Amino acid sequence: MFASLLIFTLTVRFSLGQTSRLPLVINTWPFKNATATAWGVLLSGGSVLDAVEKGCARCEMEQCDGSVGYGGSPDEHGETTLDAMIMNGDTMDVGAVADLRRIKNAIGVARAVMEHTEHTLLVGESASVFAENMGFIAEDLTTNRSLNIFSQWLKGNCQPNYRKNVFPDPKKSCGPYKPMATMKQNTRAQHANVHSHDTIGMIALDQDGHVAAGTSTNGLTHKVPGRVGDSPIVGAGAYADSSAGAAAATGDGDVMMRFLPSYLAVELMRAGADPSAACKTAISRIKRHYSDFFGAIICANTTGHYGAACNKAPGFSQFHYMVSNPKLVPPFLETENCF
Ligand code: ASP
């Protein structure tokens, strides 16, 4: 049974012709229902933007592994806030929200920013008010699960903790904190385990060459309130250009956003790199400075070829992502060995 399944899978994978690679949906992590939703949108004639929005919204509603949508990653105050972005690779229009409060459908609000304002990124309370004015429903994003994560954190003296150069010592005590007059050397600790954050990053391409990308996440568990990760930052969390391809990233956004890995990968594909090589170079660039950062990236070019790369870090040696194209239905789980 297993052998025949393997042969079938290999046959499917190696018989792909160039023309049968499109349309394509690809997303970070094994968030299969999100892939299937986006794929369904494309098959029923929806646009690549619709596919990315609906695919990511499915994850927001199902909370995926807890790292997307409401009820996950409570901050130092116990509140869940959301970051999301959507990008149109034809027009280079982008809509994004960061530190969004009380609204579950963050990628929907990101799309509203793109379609109902001249802006690119709205943040915090003002973004929530904008969303309410656009008809999104305000709801409490707290759940029993997020309350429990928060109370365990308080009980454990607020560990892990993202403060530094403050007193009392943030590695031992809860706040409030005051700045220390003398700075310690800037050594970045491996703060949290690999389960304390994730993001759905999604790319969709149709047969006519339209490309879109998007992200949605609740960020990093126990983050300092107001912290925004890489996901809503153009070129960091995702990037799309219908003349080159698209990329989307996941991982330690505080580090990754300093390198704009999605932008870099797309530019490398524009210059002729294949998607796997482009993804690898984007990860290598970060690795040079932060050798054990936690992160991964997915890349796709305009012909529907795709690839991924991830940095080998403690507890993270393989990265899983989902793909749908005409030969990979239902969505196919890909595994990338980190380097
Ligand atoms: N990149 C996200 C952030 O830092 C989290 C993740 O993808 O793991 O907010």
Describe it for me?
- 29% of the residues lie in helices and 22% in strands.
- With 339 residues, it is an alpha+beta fold.
- The strands form 3 sheets. It has an 8-stranded mixed sheet with strand order 4-3-2-8-7-1-13-14. Strands 9-10-11-12 form a 4-stranded antiparallel sheet, with helices on one face. A two-stranded antiparallel sheet has the order 5-6.
- Helix 3 (48-62) runs antiparallel to helix 4.
- It starts with a helix and ends with a strand.
- The model is unreliable at 1-18 (pLDDT under 50).
- Aspartic acid is lined by residues 197-199, 217, 219-220, 229-231, 250-253.
Shape descriptor reads globular
Domain module count? 1
- CATH architecture descriptor name: 4-Layer Sandwich
- Whole-angstrom Rg: 20 Å
What keywords describe this structure?
binds aspartic acid; 339 residues; Glutamine Phosphoribosylpyrophosphate, subunit 1, domain 1; eight-stranded mixed beta sheet; 22% strand; alpha+beta; globular; four-stranded antiparallel beta sheet; 29% helix
List the helices and strands and how they pair.
Blueprint: H1 2-14, E1 24-28, H2 32-43, H3 48-62, E2 82-88, E3 94-100, H4 106-116, E4 121-123, H5 124-133, H6 144-155, E5 166-167, E6 178-179, E7 200-205, E8 211-217, E9 238-241, E10 245-251, H7 253-256, H8 261-270, H9 275-287, E11 295-301, E12 306-310, E13 318-324, E14 332-337
Parallel strand pairs: 3-4
Antiparallel strand pairs: 1-7, 1-13, 2-3, 2-8, 5-6, 7-8, 9-10, 10-11, 11-12, 13-14
Helix pairs in contact: 2-3, 3-4, 8-9
